Amino acid sequence: MAVVRRRVIAGVSGSLRSLGALRAAVQEARSVDAVLLPVLAWAPPGGELAYLRAPCPWLLGRWEQEAHQRLRRAFEDAFGGLPADIVVHPMVVRAAPGPLLVELADRRDDVLVVGCGGWNRLASIFHGSVARYCMAHARCPVMAVPPPDLITHLRPWRHHWRPEDFTVPLAR
Q1: Residue range 37-75, pLDDT digits in tens
Q2: The dihedral sign for the CA sequence 121, 101, 53, 66
């Protein structure tokens, strides 16, 4: 009889928010002795419709390679490589992130970990919120990890550009 291990599914994009979520997912997988499934969902630049208008298999292969490199870089940036003390099954899938993560996290004992926060209203309208989608549609617990403190320290308020921001010092 096969023993089914618990799973922690983490949405990864390579952003600072997703690195925070990846760290939280690894910590959760360690604490419950679960398998970690880091998932990077990707789409061709311009979206699927733009690609269908002018398909190029060579470019598609390059974009997929870049997605694999982004997932590897996320682990390098967060931990210096794949953690050796937990089982990790990385996945790179060409799909919309929200629906893909919800589809993968189909067991009641799964835990879905996503980064959240930091978008302004206009960006949320155009990009949507993966965390909000997952919390609304997932059939398992969703851990929404707030953005790291670094983001709030870098952008505590909107920057108002001044003419001095665009000046270049003269060479002597």
Answers
A1: 999 999 998 888 888 898 899 999 999 999 999 999 999
A2: positive
Q: What is the value of pTM for the model shown?
A: 0.80
- Domain ranges, ordered by start, for the chain: 7-166
| Rg (the chain; Cα; Å) | 19
The edge-to-edge listing of strands for the beta sheet with 142-145 is 91-94, 35-42, 7-11, 111-115, 142-145
DSSP string, 17-52: HHHHHHHHHHHHHHHHT-EEEEEEEE--TT-HHHHH
The alpha carbon dihedral of 94, 99, 103, 107 has a sign of positive
Which top CATH class is 7-166?
A: alpha beta
